[in-house]
Amino acid sequence: MRVLLDVSAVPARPVGAGVYTIAVARGVADRSDVDLHLVTRRADTTRWRELAPNAELHALAPNRRPTRLAWEQTAGPRVARRIRPDVWHSPHYTMPLRATVPTVVAMHDLTFFDHPEWHERSKVVYFRRMIAAAAHRADVIVTGSNDAAEGLRTRFQLRGEIVVIHHGVDHGRFAPTLDDTSDLALLARHGVARPYIAFASTIEPRKDVPTLVRAFARIAVAHPDLQLVLAGGDGWGVAEARAAIEKSGVATRILRPGYVDNATLAALFRRAEVIAYPSLVEGFGMPALEALASGTPLVTTSGSALEEVVGDAALLVPPADPDSLARALATVLDDAPVAARLRAAGPARAATFTWARSIDAHVEAYLRAIGHRATGRGGLGTAVPG
Q: The whole model's pTM is what?
């Protein structure tokens, strides 16, 4: 089976959907039953040769986002006719609407529709229109959770079917280890020393960093040595998070190391007293899964796909509730049996999420797309183990 995967949207510093796309590219490229072709940005071939050496690269997409999005619609169908894939996989919401080959598109959440205030206005206008069109035309929509799938079914009239495939996690990297020497050395380069609460994600409105800062301020007096480490680059709408830090009264105990590489992120998660992920809404929640795999107690939010991912292996609090978040963080810090339970439960829960299972399910989704195009039959959606 020849698969064309469009990886041109993956930034140099990938998070979230970018991590997902890289994992799919690597996993599918290593399969003997798939001939994988990657469409990359013109200046991005070196990285992809290293990430997926078994794939054939097509360095065709423009480097700048606005031009690349236009290129997807104007040139994408021609690229498909030239490469002649059995299926085209678009991993980030949009796809060539005039593609004549079977299509799979990944849709991670519906925040462009439900919470446009969390995004730049220009992106909201474009992605609302293109997501709606892709949802109507795709042969298969892949999404990471049943929660996201239900939202898609409710909002759109679908031509094809929805396939729910959970993401995996790099268990070789995110795992508990007893020897902390190398971890502490990595963290020291960023000025991080124990004890601390860890957070890692792009700093943007959906991640609700202001609520985490306010919760930390509530427990800081009772834990005078504790720091809050906010890892991640600035996204759109970072001003509110900065203002919350400045007004917190504990700004000197809040570290912002910026984007950290995978090795440092794993060390940051492993050596934390607790990981906080107070996101308002998630279509999956990769940082939460990485936290569980690391064997560190996790406090996260209820009401979206995060509940589906973490099960009973984390403490759940209502979104945007600094008092509840502060109480949950204090419980982990002060109640050793609770912390011990969560440290044991996290890796056990994370073990059920593997990229190998996810890749198998993606290949099955490709076959479903081919079958759908051949028969013209749509579906309400299917959950595929992943």
A: 0.93
Phi, psi of 196 (to 5 degrees): -155, 155
d(CA 152, CA 162): 8
> 140 φ, ψ to 5°?
-140, 135
* Secondary structure letter of residue 203 according to DSSP: B
Report the candidate in 16, 19, 8 with the shortest Cα–Cα distance to residue 44: 8
Q: Most distant CA pair in the chain: distance in Å?
A: 65
Report residue 206 as tokens: 């959906």
**What's the length of the chain?**
386
Which ranges of the chain does DSSP label H, i.e. alpha helix?
17-29, 45-51, 65-74, 76-83, 111-114, 121-137, 146-155, 181-188, 209-220, 239-247, 262-270, 286-294, 305-310, 322-334, 336-350, 355-375
Q: At 184, which amino acid appears?
A: L
Integer Cα distance of 277 and 193 in angstroms: 20
Q: Cα 81–93–279 angle (5° rounding)?
A: 160
Task: Render pLDDT for 244-265 as a digit per residue (tens, 0 to 9).
Answer: 999 999 999 999 999 999 999 9
- Cα–Cα distance for residue pair 290/201, rounded to 1 Å: 12
Q: Which residues pair with 234 in a beta bridge?
A: 203
**Can you tell me the distance from the alpha carbon of 310 to that of 291, in angstroms, rounded to the nearest whole number?**
10
Q: What is the distance between the alpha carbons of residues 328 and 295, in angstroms, rounded to a whole number?
A: 17
Q: Please, are residues 293 and 346 in contact by the beta-carbon 8 Å criterion?
A: yes
Q: Which two structure tokens, joined as six digits, stand for 141? A: 């929509």
Judging by beta carbons within 10 Å of its beta carbon (0-12, 13-18, 19+), is residue 205 exposed, middle or buried?
A: buried
pLDDT in tens, 294-308: 999 999 999 999 999
| Ordered structural domains, the chain, with CATH | 2-168+355-383 (3.40.50.2000), 181-350 (3.40.50.2000)
d(CA 109, CA 115): 11
Tokens linked to 320: 């945007």
